[in-house]
């Protein structure tokens, strides 16, 4: 009786141990003994690429660092890969911080005049070049909606870091390029029902103020596929808010979309 009960429990115990092992070393890459506590972001990296490098789920990394959509990260930013979720996002590194770090690490040279030590001033950091615009009509991007542009792009206004494309409630909203749906929901204040598509390691596109979403996170889409219906959530007229981001930074979508 007891031996039969024990044999019945063995599969359950093995399953529990397997789950515990998977949770303890979830998705680690081959040959990696442990995941480091932090990772410093390099230019060109995204949350997706960093998480993939360590065998982690990118949404878990975002939650651990309190990074919300559109999941912008900056070169020099230190991300936590282990531990509990953070209640507020880590500060983005500033040019002043980067300059001070280089100055302190370079040390000082002895002065030949008075025998005292003086630190050579750190050179001003070179500005990062803007990402080059894709040529118009290259076949990679398509317009996400058929309406006229009713609000242009402005890199100085946080509410206008994209295009406002007018239309009627219920008009089709299309993926501007093939990719994976990495966000589909209504949790972002000011954007209504929103979709974010990851196209590759550098490019994301975002679609806000939708009336209805037709895709879910994890879906793959081709350029031109319908992903939502145009809406008017939080706007004074029906309008699609459309963004393109390169390495996390917003760029003018008109530089990438083909001529109509």
Task: Write out key terms for the chains shown.
260 residues; ten-stranded antiparallel β-sheet; single chain; 4 helices; Glucose Permease (Domain IIA); disordered N terminus; alpha+beta; elongated; Membrane-bound Lytic Murein Transglycosylase D, Chain A; 14 strands
Write up this protein.
This protein is α+β, with helices and mostly antiparallel strands and 260 residues long. Among the domains are: 10-80, Roll (Membrane-bound Lytic Murein Transglycosylase D, Chain A); 149-255, Distorted Sandwich (Glucose Permease (Domain IIA)). It has four helices and 14 strands. The chain has helices at 2-24, 47-53, 58-64, 95-106; strands spanning 38-40, 78-80, 108-110, 117-119, 149-151, 163-166, 172-174, 179-188, 192-198, 203-213, 220-221, 226-230, 239-246, 249-251. Strands 5, 6, 7, 8, 9, 10, 11, 12, 13 and 14 form a ten-stranded antiparallel β-sheet that branches. The protein has a two-stranded antiparallel sheet with strand order 1-2. Strands 3-4 form a two-stranded antiparallel ribbon. β13 (239-246) and β14 (249-251) form a beta hairpin. α2 packs across α3 (58-64). The radius of gyration is 24 Å and the shape is elongated. The N and C termini lie far apart (78 Å). InterPro entries: Cell_wall_metabolism_enzyme (IPR050570), Dup_hybrid_motif (IPR011055), LysM (IPR018392), LysM_dom_sf (IPR036779), M23ase_b-sheet_dom (IPR016047). Residues 75-143 are annotated as: Disordered. One of its GO terms (cellular component) is cell division site. Residues 94-108 have a biased composition (Low complexity). Belongs to the E.coli NlpD/Haemophilus LppB family.
């Amino acid at each position: 009786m007891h031996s039969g009960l024990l044999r019945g429990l063995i599969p359950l115990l093995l399953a529990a141990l397997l789950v515990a092992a998977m949770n303890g070393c979830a998705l680690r890459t081959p040959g990696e003994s442990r995941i480091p506590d932090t990772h410093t972001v390099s230019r060109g990296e995204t949350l997706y690429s960093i998480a993939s490098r360590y065998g982690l789920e990118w949404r878990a990394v975002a939650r651990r660092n309190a990074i919300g959509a559109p999941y912008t990260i900056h070169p020099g930013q230190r991300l936590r890969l282990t531990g509990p979720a953070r209640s507020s996002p880590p500060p983005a590194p500033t040019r002043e911080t980067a300059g001070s770090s280089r100055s302190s690490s370079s040390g000082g040279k002895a002065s030949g005049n008075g025998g005292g030590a003086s630190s050579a001033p750190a050179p001003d950091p070179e500005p990062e070049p803007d990402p080059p615009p894709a040529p118009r009509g290259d076949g990679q991007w398509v317009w996400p909606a058929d309406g006229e542009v009713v609000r242009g792009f402005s890199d100085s206004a946080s509410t206008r870091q994209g295009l406002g494309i007018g239309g009627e409630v219920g008009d089709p909203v299309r993926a501007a390029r093939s990719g994976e749906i990495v966000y589909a929901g209504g949790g972002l204040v000011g954007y209504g029902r929103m979709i974010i598509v990851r196209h590759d390691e550098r490019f994301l596109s975002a679609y806000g103020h939708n009336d209805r979403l037709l895709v879910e996170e994890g879906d793959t889409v081709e350029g031109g596929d319908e992903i939502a219906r145009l809406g008017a959530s939080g706007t004074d007229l029906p309008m699609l808010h459309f963004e393109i981001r390169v390495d996390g930074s917003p760029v003018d979508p008109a530089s990438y979309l083909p001529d109509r």
